[in-house]
Amino acid sequence: MRKKAKVKSKKAKIFIAIFAVMLLFSTVKAEDGYRLWLRYDALPEQNARIYRKQINSIYLNLTAGTSADVTLDELKTGLKGLLGLDIAGNSPIKNGLLIVGTPKSTKYIADLKLPLGNLSKEGFIIRSATIQNKKVTIIAANDEIGTLYGAFHFLRLLQTLQPISNLNITEKPKIKLRMLNHWDNLDGSIERGYAGKSLWKWSELPDKIDSRYRDYARANASIGINAVSLNNVNANAQILTPEYLKKVAAIANVFRPYGIKVFFSARFSAPMELGGLLTADPFDQGVKNWWKQKAAEIYLVIPNFGGFLVKANSEGQPGPRTYNRNHVDGANMLAEALASHGGIVIWRAFVYDMKPGYDRAGAAYENLQPFDGKFASNVLLQVKNGPIDFQPREPFHPLFGAMPKTNMMPELQITQEYLGFSNHLVFLADMWREVLDSDTFAKGKGSTVAKVADGTLFGSKLTGIAGVANTGTDQNWTGHDFLQANWYSFGRLAWNHEITSQQIADEWIKMTLTREPKEVALISKILLTSHNELVNYMTPLGLHHQMWGGHHYGPAPWWNTYSRDDWNPTYYNKADEKGIGFDRTKTGSNTVSQYFPAVRDEFSDLKRIPDKYLLWFQHVPWTYKMKSGKTLWEELALHYQNGVNWARQTRKDWEKLKGKIDDERFERISRKLAIQERDAIWWKDASLSYFQSLNQLPLPKGVEKPLKTLEDYKKIDLLDDFARGIGSFDENHK
Ligand code: GCV
After folding, report:
1. Closest Cα to residue 484, out of 223, 115, 129?
2. Which ligand 1 atom is the nearest neighbour of the CA of 314?
3. Is ligand 1 within 6 A of the CB of residue 572?
4. For 64, 270, 657, 722, which has the most beta carbons within 10 A of its beta carbon?
5. Could you say which of 135, 150, 171 is where a domain stops?
């Protein structure tokens, strides 16, 4: 009997063990990247133990049905995951209580008389306090949305293992409108999207609400993004139809508690396409009425609608100039239609008309600067970070600082149209910081682009910043796990453009990949060197627009066959047997004169211009002696090689993380880094082969010989779908 019982209990033990292993596996979350930086996995027990002494209960007394619900949800989920706490909503005062609310909703907070005065609706205070002799923590704001932002901030402190015993944090966003622009078409494709299809399932809306809308809104709220434009700026008028407005309204309803306003791109010719009018002339009374009625109809369905984003008279889009009116006429007509509803118009400055002998880099300034002071107060002029088009590196756009009486918002590109799609790891916080920190000298030293954006330079009240989204239906949202960091960075910088790239990198790594100091340091080194090195292997020393036409992937510096010269790489490099670079000084196009004198003089002076902008502003002989003592040709070649060396080293560095990062993400990232190395070599080899075919100079010591011939590189082309910017590019391309 005993023996039988023993056998039985042995069997039971084995069964329990198998069951336990199965349970373990079933609770281990798939590391598919879906959870982004909001993972909330258990903190190391020694940290969690300390935190649990400081936080163990919540008091949250806010109006149900507002952002309060999501704030409470988030805190519960976060504290459960990170600290293992099961917390209900309304605990009495005790040590370790987290009190969340506004002075109106919560007497404890009102009694503390916190300096919330100038924090607007979105700011918050997080403080350690003593109430009735108990040690508590306060998250206070003027409005529910501020408490949500405060909750995310508080959870970030835990996720990144910051001390929370003596908190005294005051935060408010520096910029009002922190916006993502989606270039999503209504058929589900995404222009310049490399992470799958559009998140918006138009055919299912408004009846079916995909759970991803909420997850997307939550991720945005966690980094302070408060506005989203849903569709491509190359717009389809359909979005203005009653049928689509209901669909937009359904999305807006999901976003509302997360503090996100919905915008969309309006096609300027919609009164003709939808309203049957014979013109879209902004001076035509019928056209004005059509837009007014449309605005009223929109606000009936979407009461908190943000407004229109408009690309007009650019790359074939309709606009006021079609009717001999100007940009102000067009923007102000739409602004008038939206004004009484509190809506705004975001008018894009991305306009460039090809004229004989013209310099595209000067076009937006020529077209728009003369209208300073003429735009209505509810218009924001959206200006790309640089004067050409989201190149790997550009000097800042000369319009920044040049229109003091115009509301102006920078447009950044998170999706990597010109930076290796979702295949190349590049940390864009660095690039954006470079732009935001650039000094326009508009009002003397210190007149940075950031101060134009946040309104402090010229006192603008309506401020904004936009990023063209890099999200799609790929399970990990951004195609490449590392590129989630750029979505994250955009939000963090939009909230506070003074945060360093180092801080953003550290936060993101700790929340997303690992908190082990050695690994954090290694990954942060990779991130923080990546932008400079990508520029090195793609377009060093101020080169720009050297990629294949159309899809913009891979090198084609020889390309000169587009009928529009300003889409040809040769137009930008101006390389011949003697030298290379676009002369934008007095001896050339002189568009350098669009900058304020201090900047103009620096960029015009061969001795003073920073190397990184050299070939953007100057045409230089191959034999020109650089600051380093090397010739331009040698420097150029070595820059390409440095980029390749970095891509190689990065793969080696990443290998060191095997076993330190979960296998799933480790492998996915490894595959992407292999493509990046291959492409870096391709960029170097194709570019140097072409330039060498012109100058016949030998490669300097330390630069590897190209793997193939120039003719081989010229033959490479990419898949059709891919070429149109649809879908992810993968290893198929050899
Ligand atoms: C949405 C570049 C891109 C286009 C994009 C355009 C813009 O030209 O290649 O795809 O169109 O910029 O910003 O409007």
Report:
1. 223
2. 14
3. no
4. 270
5. 171
